[in-house]
Amino acid sequence: MPIEILMPALSPTMTEGKLAKWLKNEGDSIKSGDLIAEIETDKATMEMEAVDEGTLGKILVPAGTEKVSVNQPIAMLLLEGEKTSAATPPASKPPALTPAAPSKQPELKLESAPAPKVESKPAPVPAPAPVVLPTGESADDRIFASPLAKRIATDAGIDLAAVKGSGPKGRIVKADVEQAAASGSARKSTTPAKAPVQVSAISDFGQPYTEVPNSGMRKMIAKRLLEAKTTIPHFYLTIDCVIDDLLKLRKDINDGAGDGVKVSVNDFVIKASALALRKVPQANASWTDEAIRLYERVDISIAVATPEGLITPIVRDADKKGLGAISNEVKDLAGRAKAKKLKPEEFQGGGFSISNLGMFGIKEFSAIINPPQVCILAVGKADQRPVVKDGALAVASVMTCTLSCDHRVVDGAVGAEFLQAFQALIENPLRMLI
Amino acid sequence: MSDTSFDLIVVGGGPGGYTAAIRASQLGMKTAIVEKELLGGICLNWGCIPTKALLRSAEVYHLMHRAKEFGLKADNISFDIDAVIKRSRGVASQLNGGVKHLMKKNKVTVFEGHAKLAGKGKLAITKDNKPVADLTAKNIILATGARARELPGLEADGNLVWNYRHAMVPKMFPKTLLVIGSGAIGIEFASFYQTLGCKVTVVEVLDRILSVEDVEISGLAHKQFEKQGMVIKTKAAVKALKKNANDVTATIEQGGKTETLTFDRVISAVGIVGNVENIGLEGTKIKVEKTHVVIGPYGETGEPGVYAIGDLCGPPWLAHKAGHEAVICVEKIAGLHPHPLNVLGIPGCTYCHPQIASVGLTEQAAKEKGHQVKVGRFPFLANGKAIALGDTNGLVKTVFDAKTGELLGAHMIGPEVTEMIQGYAIAKTLETTEQELMHTVFPHPTLSEMMHESVLDAYGQAINM
Predict the structure, then answer these.
(1) Which listed CATH number (3.60.21.10, 3.40.640.10, 3.90.1150.10, 3.30.559.10) goes with A232-433?
(2) With contacts defined as CB-CB under 8 Å, which chain A residues touch B403?
(3) B166 in catalytic set
(4) pLDDT tens digits for chain B (465 residues)?
(5) Can you give chain B as a three-state secondary structure string?
(6) List A89, A407, A416, A417, catalytic entry
(7) Do A147 and B431 touch (CB under 8 A)?
(8) Smallest Cα distance from A14 to chain B, Å
(9) Domains in chain B and their CATH numbers?
(10) Which CATH number fits domain A3-128: 3.40.50.300, 1.10.10.10, 2.40.50.100, 3.40.50.1820?
């Protein structure tokens, strides 16, 4: 019997969404893990991954359809040997799909009013995952499992989708999960399920090469940054900050900390950015065709390099947090980012990004904006440079920072105003402690 | 009786047997049942049901004595033991008639007599030792039940020394009574006689009464019974019974000391043995261990086509277990895919005053199994409905696995707990965790609110305590 492909829930609270795009056509063969469609809500866009193998029989909900209810059948998947004529929706609802990792950024809701208007709305924050579900898993009930089975599966890292239920009507019960745990058959892999197959070959021009298939994360980075660089009118502002006072303050703090929190220059950069954003809220914003959305909270995304690629965990309410708190949080987030253990709400959202390549010795660079944000601050290495002070040559520790701005929201003067505020704080770091 | 060939024949008409017959009939099998005495078995005729009728009389009598507390007047309170027994027999008889009707309604052929396996798929039926019929069946379910264990020297004679059956229809009401054994049966009779004014002494060989229950619960029961005037001797043994003209002198050993006490009557409730004799098990592949038939998860015995269910197969000796095993067994025979019985999900109830009910692991058993536990407790004293009822002695105790939130066991003592335990049994069957129990709305004002509070207490969140 054909399997119904159902509208997935991107978040526990999602009830409906837009079927943005079909990535497969009717008649295409589908392998488990293939991306088959893109789903949008006001909070996120994400790609649906196929769980079962077969042929996409009939698309029931065409691309671009808005307000598709969660769990509504959107297509039929034909199993091997089944004909297209069989692809009418049956009454039963077997699990067909689980959502792929949600995209990192919130999409913008379009305001219909023609005139610009200022609207105050709480920033979109993904609802917290329910207690019993594995992080990031959708909350819909297509996998029938007892609460205890779910809890044990979560603790043991068992993927319930791969567990066969022995309870009434195939419900997954404790014994099934324990058996799966013992056999190790359904363990969730911490690395992508299929290890990329590297293929060695020789190009048309005689150059040998190795082909490393793109991971989902790599594809996502490519897509989003291409979109950012080609659709956002970037411009760049660079400023030098003298940070001798900051370095001294940092030394004093860390010397006095003993075994306690040691703060980094980057922690100061985060704090200074956050306070500067309070002064220049236009830099903590998003563009939509109808309105500019000004965020009320200062949530700063920090670019973290991981072996799989870039990810931007968020320090929320960074303006309200002390340096120690920021420092601890960044360490924790970066550590878990590298271990791939971030929850979606820890890297989705954010109103402003910071990318720091100072530790690699980079003096200055310009970064690509992380949409739908409008600014990203690229931070270079702090080193001793000759400066002219009161008409005389002197040596100072200087750090060059470059702000990339989306000109649709942030004009040159606004960007400059932000950098000025930022520089004032960085160069007079005691002001950050007030 | 011309028809002697069936799809299924059930031997024994107790709660296991008659349930099996009905389910088989529902599934389209041509079914017969053989009962040598009364349909409904011990449970309905000599066990669960008539004792509940007796205990109800005792409860009403007890409340009449407390009438003043409730602002009521009742003078010259007394009882007529014959009338109490008559009511109990009436209740049993009514239900026995009910089972007969159910057999007829479900087109189950009833054979009165004793059945014995007589070769593959064959049963020989006799009545008063005369052959009645030779039956053949594709499948046979043995549900012959169990009976009171007789210990040498403590044998019941029906006159001075009783078993449960004699105790249910006493010819006289004793002033003093010795109950040997403190399992559910012993304790229920002890409670019944004690409540009606008899001076009861309970002797238990183990270190505590109701030893299958949680230590805390059996401790609370012990205290309550002593408060009512019962004498309880644990780690004690009845060494000898000397029958006098109209009473019995018992030699009781406790802690190395021996004493002799005289009682009007003695109830022997020292355990249960399966009815494995004289049903033709000899020479078959059916295995018997410790007086009980050994079965597989669906009631299979060593002999193909022969199944066994209920008390015949060992503890827990509970009617509801037998009935459940019956359905599982019959569905398996019918080619369905039933789920084997989870013993830890079977609740147990003792209808003494205060009542006791439990399901799953005791706290101690849970720890011995290696669980790290979270334990919740809620006393009846803090429950509005219990105070309104005027019955505040009791406790609801819950045991959770600290790691997974699994409800490992629940143990209750107090009024109406036997009616409440099913809530936790459902929770266990559905494999709920503490989360679902916490999120369940319990009605107010009820005793069941304590079930909620106990769960909350296990996680340090009890509200009304």
Answers:
(1) 3.30.559.10
(2) 155
(3) no
(4) 458 999 999 999 999 999 999 999 999 999 999 999 999 999 999 999 999 999 999 999 999 999 999 999 999 999 999 999 999 999 999 999 999 999 999 999 999 999 999 999 999 999 999 999 999 999 999 999 999 999 998 999 999 999 999 999 999 999 999 999 999 999 999 999 999 999 999 999 999 999 999 999 999 999 999 999 999 999 999 999 999 999 999 999 999 999 999 999 999 999 999 999 999 999 999 999 999 999 999 999 999 999 999 999 999 999 999 999 999 999 999 999 898 999 999 999 999 999 999 999 999 999 999 999 999 999 999 999 999 999 999 999 999 999 999 999 999 999 999 999 999 999 999 999 999 999 999 999 999 999 999 999 999 999 988
(5) CCCCEEEEEEECCCHHHHHHHHHHHHCCCCEEEEECCCCCHHHHHHCHHHHHHHHHHHHHHHHHHCHHHHCCCCCCCCCCHHHHHHHHHHHHHHHHHHHHHHHHHCCCEEEECEEEECCCCEEEEEECCEEEEEEEEEEEEECCCEEECCCCCCCCCCCCEECHHHHHCCCCCCCEEEEECCCHHHHHHHHHHHHCCCEEEEECCCCCCCCCCCHHHHHHHHHHHHHCCCEEECCEEEEEEEECCCCEEEEEEECCEEEEEEECEEEECCCEEECCCCCCCCCCCCCEECCEECCCCCCECCCCCEEECHHHHCCCCCHHHHHHHHHHHHHHHCCCCCCCCCHHHCCEEECCCCCEEEEECCHHHHHHCCCCEEEEEEEHHHCHHHHHHCCCCCEEEEEEECCCCEEEEEEEECCCHHHHHHHHHHHHHCCCEHHHHHHCCCCCCCCCHHHHHHHHHHCCCCCCC
(6) A407
(7) yes
(8) 22
(9) 5-148+273-343 (3.50.50.60), 161-270 (3.50.50.60), 354-458 (3.30.390.30)
(10) 2.40.50.100
Residues of B in contact with A148 (CB under 8 A): 404-406, 431-433
ipTM above 0.90, yes or no: no
A167 vs B contacts (CB less than 8 Å): 339
| Domain extents in chain A | 3-128, 232-433
